[in-house]
TrEMBL record:
<keyword id="KW-0489">Methyltransferase</keyword>
<keyword id="KW-0808">Transferase</keyword>
<protein>
    <submittedName>
        <fullName>Class I SAM-dependent methyltransferase</fullName>
        <ecNumber>2.1.-.-</ecNumber>
    </submittedName>
</protein>
<dbReference type="InterPro" id="IPR013217">
    <property type="entry name" value="Methyltransf_12"/>
</dbReference>
<dbReference type="InterPro" id="IPR029063">
    <property type="entry name" value="SAM-dependent_MTases_sf"/>
</dbReference>
<dbReference type="GO" id="GO:0008168">
    <property type="term" value="F:methyltransferase activity"/>
</dbReference>
<dbReference type="InterPro" id="IPR050723">
    <property type="entry name" value="CFA/CMAS"/>
</dbReference>
<keyword id="KW-0443">Lipid metabolism</keyword>
<feature type="domain" description="Methyltransferase type 12">
    <location>
        <begin position="91"/>
        <end position="192"/>
    </location>
</feature>
<dbReference type="GO" id="GO:0032259">
    <property type="term" value="P:methylation"/>
</dbReference>
<keyword id="KW-0949">S-adenosyl-L-methionine</keyword>
<comment type="similarity">
    <text>Belongs to the CFA/CMAS family.</text>
</comment>
<dbReference type="Pfam" id="PF08242">
    <property type="entry name" value="Methyltransf_12"/>
</dbReference>
Amino acid sequence: MTRSSLLHQARYALRHPDRVIPHARRLTRDLWLRLQSRDHVDYYRAVMRSDTERNPDRAVGSKSREKWLKIGKAQFDYLVQHGLSPEHRMLEIGCGNLRAGRLFIDYLSPGHYYGIDISPDILFAAQQTLADYGLQDKLPRLTPVHDLRFSFLPSEHFDVIHAHSVFSHSPLHVIEECFANVGRIMKPGGWFDFTFDRTQGKEHHVLREDFYYRTETLVELAGRYGLTATFMEDWELLPYKQSKIRVRRAVR
Ligand SMILES: C[S@@+](CC[C@H](N)C(=O)[O-])C[C@H]1O[C@@H](n2cnc3c(N)ncnc32)[C@H](O)[C@@H]1O
């Protein structure tokens, strides 16, 4: 850690004294979980287990059910305004407890929604969401995964792939693994929307839980795997912290 980042942290602590103890608690828990984990995915799965046990809505980043409903609806409305239609086949990467997924499932034809997540615990909570919202007849698939290679999924199958607030918790090698493989499972003409925590300064992470990237880094990385990436300017008009990029298979 550099002297300037230590200084930055000290200044931040003086400005927000109420956040010091919760941060110290999170730091200790994360250190403990990291010591027991093989790799990032294993570590983040343990973070999700601990967070989900306390409160599944908070585990996916919503401090209240009201906020959970609001951010889920924002994701859904945006995708529908951008061309999602009921006959599309959709893959949601990092579907969590179906904050947006429940709306996608309700809207899409039965069997057209596929959700994957690294956390079995949040998928149990997702099953509860299906029951709570009466979505059983839509028969969505919910599957735990170890990686983002999609090796068990068919080629050129999905019209729409969606990952909200997943790459904001992912180191670059996880995003790269996704880019290297996502083109195979997308239909020609399909698209993949993901959000990320954007920085215009130095790329960094906080406790290996929250990762900040420059737009150019992700656009260039996608390009290396035959994907064309577009920064979604209209998403910026909405009152949410993260930015959004849309990726398509490049036309050859
Ligand atoms: C902040 S939550 C967002 C959940 C959901 N997308 C939403 O907006 O409600 C992030 C989710 O991504 C999952 N996740 C994190 N890294 C992942 C990865 N590499 N592959 C699949 N899921 C991942 C977490 O377990 C968690 O459920």
